[in-house]
Amino acid sequence: MMRSLLRIYDWSGRLPMWANVVETNIMIGTHVDAVLANALERNFTDYNVTKAWEAVKKNAYVPPVDDTELLYYDRESYTPDEVRAGLTAYLTDGYVPNDQWAESGSRTLDYAFDDYAASVVASRAGDQATAAELMQRSDNYRTIYNANTTFMEARNANGTWAGSDQGWTEGDDWIYTFNVPHDPNGLAKLMGGRAQTKAKLDAYFEGGYNNQANEPSHHAPYLYAAIGYPAWTQNLTRAIAANNYNATAAGLSGNEDLGQMSAWYLFSAMGFYPLNPASDEYVVGSPFFENTTIRLPAGAATGGIGGDEHTVSVLAPGAPTKPFVKSLKVDGVEIVKPMLLHSQIVGASCIEFEMSEVPTSWGDQGI
To answer: For residue 292, is it within any domain?
Structure first.
């Protein structure tokens, strides 16, 4: 898969942005950066890592054609490559101005995450100076946080706020306020602390703003566990799954979009979820079943080279009626934080949950 991405880069001069058989040139971020970072963090390196960094660096530093001449509305006809539209201003101001580019709030938040992913690729390729610069840039989500309203909000070129209904892609300010999957604890600090962030998440879910039918909401229930309230994640993921999935021809509540609806369910059912897909971490949720078996091919735990096929058993006795986690062990070793590393999962024989009918204090220190 990584070699195919780089072949596309060779052919077109850019990594794919939103490829669905062909390049659709829609949506707003360069999340292919996270795909490459994901592989590198899992030690899959049997491809040209130097070229991967060259391609990702181009995403992070080279604006699209006519960047300052076009608004780049979603699905606007006859636009050139939309790769990080508004990057010209983002590089100097730390945000995409709403009066100069469409979907500016969502772009700013996506680019901050993409900067985190690009930093991972740079580091793995040996460019530590640029990796540090990009990691600092990944804090740019802070530039559009309005402390007075406690929401993310797009800004104009002169720094003024653009209004709560401006600058969003297939979502609103409620959904995008939590769009910081790479730094949930930094977001919590920005919002005034864990308790204030939990209260904001409570209002988000209780107010019906979460939309499982579309991707921008998918990570939100796992933010509770990340900041130290895992029981809320454990209860929510069960409820979301029950309301949005079923075993019929209409079993998905939203557009499958290359597999993301099903992927959310599969990860959640196993009991862990890649909140930050540019890292090697999974936030622990609550397994849906008493016994799940994951069959892994040879090389899954060794970067695709060597190794043997093996299976991982995820055991959670009583899970269908006990949604809360009381303890967690990986091959007998106690896990105290609600977080598993990729190497722990693919290298394990048995991941064992002890479940409870009532909330517990397990994992309440966050990740």
So the answer is: no
Q: What is the mean pLDDT of the chain?
A: 96
Say how far apart CA 248 and CA 349 lie, in whole Å: 32
Residues 141, 138: Cα–Cα separation, whole Å: 7
Q: What is the model's pLDDT at position 77?
A: 79
In a domain, 288, yes or no: no
pLDDT at residue 292, rounded to an integer = 98
pLDDT at 73: 85
Mean pLDDT of 213-231: 97
Of the candidates 227, 57, 71, 37, the one whose C-alpha atom is nearest the C-alpha of residue 137 is: 57
Residues 111-128: tens digit of each pLDDT: 999 999 999 999 999 999
**Pairwise CA distance, residues 38 & 114, whole Å:** 12
Question: Which amino acid, residue 354?
Answer: E
pTM (global) more than 0.85: yes
Q: Does residue 279 form part of some domain?
A: no
Tell the residue number behind the tokens 């029981």, with chain if given.
Answer: 231
Helix 32-41 × helix 2-12 angle, to 10° = 140
Q: Which long-range contacts (CB under 8 A, 24 or more apart) does 308-315 make?
A: 310/349, 311/349, 312/345, 312/346, 312/348, 312/349, 312/350, 312/351, 313/349, 313/350, 313/351, 314/270, 314/271, 314/287, 314/289, 314/351, 314/353, 315/290, 315/291, 315/350, 315/351, 315/352, 315/353
Nearest to 303 by CA among 49, 128, 54: 49
CATH number of 86's domain: 1.20.1610.10
Residues 174 and 129 sit within 8 Å (Cβ to Cβ): no
**pLDDT (average), residues 125-143:** 98
Token pair 């938040």 in the structure block, residue: 109
- Asked whether residue 144 carries a pLDDT value surpassing 90, the answer given is yes
**Domain of 247, in residue numbers:** 2-272
**Total of domains in the chain:** 1
Strand, coil or helix: 254: coil
Q: Identify whether 127 is part of a domain.
A: yes
pLDDT band at 232 (very low <50, low <70, confident <90, very high): very high
Percent of the chain whose predicted confidence (pLDDT) is above 90: 89
Q: Contact, 144 vs 302, CB < 8 A?
A: no
